[in-house]
Amino acid sequence: MGEHLLEIKDLYVEYVTDDAHVYAVNGIDLFLDRGETLGLVGETGAGKTTTALSILKLLPEKVGRIAKGSILLAGTDVTAASEAEMRLLRGETVSMIFQDPMTSLNPVLTVGDQIAEVLQLHKKYKDKAGVEARVDEILKMVGLPPERKQDFPHQFSGGMKQRIVIAIALACEPLLLLADEPTTALDVTIQAQVLALMNELKQDLDTAMILITHDLGVVAQTCDRVAVVYAGEIIETGTVEQIFSGDRHHPYTVGLFQSIPDLKKKTRRLHPIDGLMPDPTDLPSGCKFHTRCPKCAQVCMERRPKPWEEDGHIIRCHLFAKGGPEA
Amino acid sequence: MLKYIGKRVLLMIPVVLGISFILFTIMEFSPGDPARIILGDYATQEQVDELREEMGLNDAFLVRYGRYVLNAAQGDFGKSYRSNSPVVGEIAARFPVTLKISLMAIMIAVLIGIPVGIISAVKQYSFADILSTMAALLFTSIPAFWLGLLLIMFLSVQHHILPSVGSDTWKHLIMPSLSLAAAQMATIIRMTRSTMLEVIRQDYIRTAKAKGASSRRVVFHHAIKNALLPVITTVGLSVSNLLGGALIIENVFGISGLGTVMVNSVKSKDTPLLLGSVMFAAVVAGFVNLGVDVLYTYVDPRIKAQFVKKTKRQGAGT
After folding, report:
1. What total number of domains does chain A contain?
2. Contact B227, B192 (CB under 8 A)
3. Is B97 in the same domain as B170?
4. Is A106's CB within 8 Å of B222's CB?
C-alpha cells in the first residue's frame, strides 16, 4: 500500500445541472504501478473519460464535481490539491491524450509552439535552443519530420494530428499517461501505427498508462490489466489473461465478449447484450446491471454486490459471493 | 494576395456606380429646381431658364447621368451647385473632422468593448457579466442622437465641462465620439462575449489546461486569438456604421463634417456634392472592409493558407 503510482479509492463523480443530476462515476477503486498499462473498457457513457478527467481535476467547471473518494497520484491527493498544485502535476506528472485529435489542437498556433508550451510551462530547459531541440526530437519520435513544426494544425491529416497530440502528452515524459480512445478517430492502418508507437514509447520511457477504449482487440494487444466499467462502476478487473481467458466472469463481461464476431467459429448471429445502459440520472438499485442481466436474481435488485477476489481478479457480482446469489 | 486585393478594388466599381445611379435617380424625382435654388427666389424665369440651359439640366436624364459618370471617371466630380467650388475640394475640407470623430469612436468602442466582453465571458454569470450585458443592451437600444443630447444636457449645460457645439479642439470631439461609440461598443461587447464563451469550451482549451497552463495563460495565449477573429469583422462593419452615424451626430453637435455636407446637399438639391460625398464614403467603407479581410488572413492561418498554398505548391513542384 502507498507504493502505487496512482490509487483511486471509492471515487464518486457527479454532474449537476439545472435539469439533471448525473451520477457518472459511482465508487470506482483502481490502482496503477509504474510502467503498467491498464485498459479501461466499457460502453459510451460508462464514466471512463470522467474518471480520467477526475485524475487531472479537469472536470467541466461548475457542473462536474468529485462527490466522494480519493485520488492519490504520485503522493499527492488530487481531490484536496489546490489549482496551483494541480498545474504542476498536469503535463509533467500526468498528461492526457484526448479523444478527438481534430479539435484538440489550437488552430491559430503552430504545432511546434504547442509542443514547446508544455516544456516551457514546466521549465524543462533553460534556453530556447534546448526547448527547440526537444521539440524536434519528440516530433521525430512520433514519426513526423521536425521541419513541420512551423505548420498549423489544419495542414496535417487526422493521424498526424493524433501524433502531435501524443507528442504534446509525452514531451515531459510523464509518469502517467491517460489515453482516451487514442485510436477511435483514426482509420485502421493509422490505428495500428499509433498503438505500436505508444507501446514503443511506453517501453522506452517506462510510463504507466490508462488506456480508455471500447475496443477489446486494442486492449488485448497493449494492456497488462483490464478494468471493465459499467454505469460508473468497475464490475470486473484483472490481468489481461484473467479477463480474456479466465473461466469466471461477470455476466456483463461475458456479454461483451459474445458481441464480438469470432473468425474461428461459424455463427450466424452475434449476441449483443439486450437493452441499453441505464440512464445515469436514474440508476437502478442494487447491481446496476440487473436490468439487463440474464442471470438476475432477487438479491441483485436489492443489494449492491460485494467484490469477489482471487489473485487480483475482482468481480462485483452476487453470482460469486459466498454461497451464491441465494445467500 | 495582390491579385485578391486587386479583384476586391475592381469590385468596388459596380458598387459605386450603383450608388451613384440610385442617388441620381432619387435626386431627379425629388421636387425643386437647382437653377432656382442657386439664383434665389427673386430671379426671373428667363434667368432660371438660361442657367438651366447652361448647366445642361434640360438634357435627357440618361444623357446627364452618362455625362456625370464619364466626367467622374476622369476625376472630375463637378462643382457644387451652391458654392460653385469643386466637389473634391469640399470633401477634402470636410472629411478630416468626420474621420477624427469616427477614429476616436472606434478606438473607444474597441478599447472598452473587447476587454469588457472578455471579462464578461471568463466570469460568466458573475456580477460583472450581468452588469456588462445589461449595459450592452442599454447602449444598443439608445439612439445615438438622444445619447448626444443627454451628454450635452449633462456635461455642457449643467456642468460646463465640455463645449457643446463645433469642432475646434479635441475637447469638442469627445461627446460626439462617445455618442457614436456607444452602440458600436455594445455590439463589440456582445460579439466578444459570445465568441469567447464558445472558444473557452473548445477541446483545445482543455488540452492547454492539461499541459498545466494557468487560467490567465489559457485566456490570453489560447483563447483570445481565436475569439477575436469574428470580432475583427464586426469592427470592420462598425466603421461603415460610424460613417452613417456621423451624419446624424454631426448635426446634433453642429460639426461641419462629411455628414453635414450630405444633409445640406440633399436640402439644396446639390446633386454633384451629394453624389461625390456619398460615393467617397462608400469607397472609404469598402477599403476599410478590404483592410479587415486582409488583416484576417494574417491572424487566421487557415485563411492565409488559401493564398499561400499556390505559391508553395509551385515551389515544391520545381
Report:
1. 2
2. yes
3. yes
4. yes
More reliable by pLDDT, A183 or A234:
A234
- How far is A226 from A239, CA to CA, in rounded Å? 6
Q: Kindly report the average pLDDT of chain B as a whole number.
A: 87
Q: Do B210 and A89 touch (CB under 8 A)?
A: no
Report residue A224 as a C-alpha cell.
Answer: 497488462
> Which residue among A148, A173, A198 closes a domain?
A173
Cα separation, A84 vs B214, whole angstroms: 8
Residues B49, B171, single domain; the answer is no
Annotate B115-126 with b (16+ C-beta within 10 A) or e (fewer). Answer: ebbbbbbbebee
Range of the domain at B216: 93-317
Q: How many CB contacts within 8 angstroms connect chain A with chain B?
A: 74
The cell for A60 is 467541466
Domain end, chosen from A124, A155, A173, is at A173
Q: Provide the shortest C-alpha distance from residue A240 to chain B (in Å).
A: 29
Q: Which residues pair with A313 in a beta bridge?
A: A310
Asked if the structure places residue A152 within a domain, the reply is: yes
Report pLDDT for B107: 93
Q: Are residues B307 and B236 in the same domain?
A: yes
What cell does B244 get?
452613417
pLDDT tens track for A171-182: 888 899 999 988
Distance of alpha carbon B307 from alpha carbon B287, whole angstroms: 19
What DSSP string describes A184-197?
TTS-HHHHHHHHHH
A211: in domain: no
Residue B22 has pLDDT above 90, yes or no: yes
Condensed to tens digits (0 to 9), the pLDDT of residues A109-156 reads 999 999 999 999 988 788 889 999 999 998 988 888 999 999 999 999
Q: For position A94, what pLDDT does the model report?
A: 93
ipTM: 0.85
Distance of alpha carbon A70 from alpha carbon A249, whole angstroms: 28
| Count of the separate structural domains present in chain B | 2
Please say if the pLDDT value at position A327 is more than 50. Answer: no
**Residues B262 and B189 occupy one common structural domain:** yes
DSSP annotation of A138: H
The whole-angstrom separation of Cα A24 and Cα B101 is 57
Domain boundary among B38, B73, B108: B73
- How far does A170 lie from chain B, in Å, by closest CA? 10
The least confident of A64-68, A314-318, A323-327, B219-223 is A323-327
User: Are residues B68 and B97 located together in one domain of the fold?
Assistant: no
Using DSSP bridges, classify how beta strands A37-42 and A208-213 pair: parallel, antiparallel or unpaired: parallel
Q: State residue A318's pLDDT score.
A: 85
**Burial (Cβ within 10 Å: 0-12, 13-18, ≥19) of residue B297:** middle
Domain for residue A28, yes or no?
A: no
Interface of B with A (CB under 8 A): 202-204, 206-215, 217, 221-222, 225-226, 299-302, 305
β pairing state of A176-180 and A21-32? unpaired
pLDDT of residue B20: 92
Q: Is the pLDDT of residue B251 over 70?
A: yes
Please judge whether A152 and B207 are an interchain contact, meaning their C-beta atoms are less than 8 angstroms apart.
no
B102 plus B30 within the same structural domain? no
Report the alpha-carbon distance of residue B200 to residue B197 in Å, rounded: 5
The region of weakest confidence among A81-90, A171-180, A266-275, B216-225 is: A266-275
Range of the domain at A270: 253-320
